């Protein structure tokens, strides 16, 4: 819970700057090159690789060498870390590798640039196509396979990772990251690389919430714009059939309902239940899919589709005072009882330009109504702040 004092703390409104560190020891880019950086854009997602671009206005010195391109810093596969510096504290946004330096030399030498494409640490798992069979001799969980694949990179796994499935041997004929993303999808898991650690597991809907997104909160407002969509055309249940085990036996049907925590007081499935006709999708067995795999796929589908309330908006990063993290929950305050409360962060795009630090976000939610005990005091605080101005 964020206190009123914390919201009013002037430290939360310090101008944010971008810190870029490159190399095995993450040495900070020297001041001469840092002054030439014109924009940084990084997109962090819970299910896709974090990627981005850094644009530098390059300059040629009297010796004919270019300050950035010839510095020896911006080379392919050089480790890179990007953080937001809020003056009072620094928070990491991205860690990974330079995947493609792109120098540009237009007719006017004063317009020469060096654009740096970057990708998170999963890029190192996309270099070698592997052909192997996992669990051929003894069952292996998806988490055990992941640990084996990331071991050469010296990456640790988050303690909250899920085990995944282990119902049969699995054939891999792809790069490690392609295979791991397939396994994440099969389990309905998030797969994120962050700060030298890998998270492979279900949506993290519990635990401490991030600093609140404040709408219409007077001078404490940190949200520049916000739009919410509330989709009613998604399934409340997913069903699949079990093939008869014995000759002459009848086919049985299994129904899956969301089994994740509701981010609000009223789960979305409650609306429309009075119609008497449930909103149901059906799935069928694919190939040699086992019963465990089919059940996991059906559960993942109904869980994902329960997050039918979506919010898109933009934060003033300096006023927010933090890096909004994907794959975590965040409260929204100022949008009323129905749409105020906890949301799950799906994706965040961080932009540093001459106009400042902006964070464009995509959020999702599977319930309406504010979570009891979380947003009440916060709403009172921000309402009090708003009334002062």
Description:
34% of the residues are buried. A hairpin with a 4-residue loop joins strand 1 (17-22) and strand 2 (27-28). This protein has eight helices and 23 strands. It is an alpha+beta fold and 389 residues long. Strands 1, 2, 3, 4, 5, 6, 7, 13, 14, 19, 20, 21 and 22 form a 13-stranded mixed sheet that branches. Strands 9-12-11 form a three-stranded mixed sheet. The longest helix has 15 residues, at 291-305. Helices cover 17% and strands 36% of the residues. The model is unreliable at 1-12 and 375-389 (pLDDT under 50).
**Separation of termini?**
24 Å
Number of helices: 8
Shape: globular
Sequence stretches where pLDDT stays below 50 over 5 or more residues: 1-12, 375-389
Q: How is the main sheet built?
A: 13 strands, mixed
As a percent range, the share of helical residues equals 10-25%
Radius of gyration: 24 Å
Helix/strand structural class? alpha+beta
Strand content: 35-45%
Break the fold down into its secondary structure elements and pairings.
Elements: H1 4-8, E1 17-22, E2 27-28, H2 31-34, E3 37-45, E4 51-57, E5 79-85, E6 90-104, E7 113-120, E8 130-134, H3 142-150, E9 156-157, E10 170-174, H4 176-187, E11 190-194, E12 197-201, E13 213-214, E14 223-230, E15 237-242, E16 252-256, E17 266-267, E18 280-282, H5 291-305, E19 309-316, H6 317-320, E20 329-333, H7 336-339, E21 341-353, E22 356-365, E23 367-368, H8 375-387
Parallel strand pairs: 9-12, 13-20, 15-18
Antiparallel strand pairs: 1-2, 1-5, 3-4, 3-21, 4-7, 5-6, 6-7, 8-10, 11-12, 14-19, 15-16, 17-23, 19-22, 20-21, 21-22
């Amino acid at each position: 819970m964020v206190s009123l004092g914390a919201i009013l703390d002037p430290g939360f409104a310090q101008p944010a700057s971008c810190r870029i560190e490159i190399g095995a020891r993450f040495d900070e880019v020297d001041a001469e090159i840092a002054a030439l950086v014109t924009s940084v854009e990084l997109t962090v997602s819970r299910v896709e690789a974090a990627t981005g671009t850094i644009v530098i206005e390059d300059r040629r010195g009297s010796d004919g060498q270019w300050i950035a391109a010839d510095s020896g810093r911006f080379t392919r596969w050089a480790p890179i870390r990007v953080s937001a510096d809020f003056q009072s504290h620094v928070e990491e946004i991205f860690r990974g590798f330079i995947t493609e330096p792109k120098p540009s030399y237009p007719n006017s030498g004063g317009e020469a640039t060096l654009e740096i494409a970057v990708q998170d640490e999963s890029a190192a798992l996309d270099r070698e196509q592997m052909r192997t069979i996992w669990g051929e001799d003894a069952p292996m969980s998806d988490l055990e396979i992941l640990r084996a694949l990331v071991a050469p990179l010296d990456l640790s796994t988050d303690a909250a990772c899920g085990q995944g499935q282990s119902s049969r041997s699995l054939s891999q004929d792809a790069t490690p990251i392609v295979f791991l993303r397939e396994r994440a999808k099969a389990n309905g898991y998030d797969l994120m690389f962050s700060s030298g650690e890998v998270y492979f597991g279900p949506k993290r809907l519990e635990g401490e919430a991030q600093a609140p997104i404040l709408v219409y909160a007077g001078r404490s407002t940190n949200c520049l714009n916000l739009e919410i969509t509330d989709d009613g055309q998604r399934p409340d249940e997913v069903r699949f059939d079990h093939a008869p085990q014995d000759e002459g036996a009848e086919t049985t049907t299994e129904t899956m309902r969301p089994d994740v925590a509701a981010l609000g007081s009223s789960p979305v499935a409650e609306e429309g239940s009075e119609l008497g006709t449930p909103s149901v999708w059906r799935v069928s067995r694919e190939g040699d899919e086992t019963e465990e795999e089919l059940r996991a796929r059906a559960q993942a589908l109904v869980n994902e589709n329960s997050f039918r309330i979506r919010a898109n908006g933009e934060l003033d990063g300096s006023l927010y005072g933090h890096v909004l993290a994907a794959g975590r929950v965040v409260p929204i305050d100022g949008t009323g009882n129905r749409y105020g409360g906890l949301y799950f962060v799906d994706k965040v795009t961080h932009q540093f330009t001459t106009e400042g630090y902006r964070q464009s976000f995509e959020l999702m939610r599977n319930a309406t109504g504010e979570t009891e005990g979380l947003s009440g005091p916060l709403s009172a605080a921000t309402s009090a702040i708003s009334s002062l101005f």
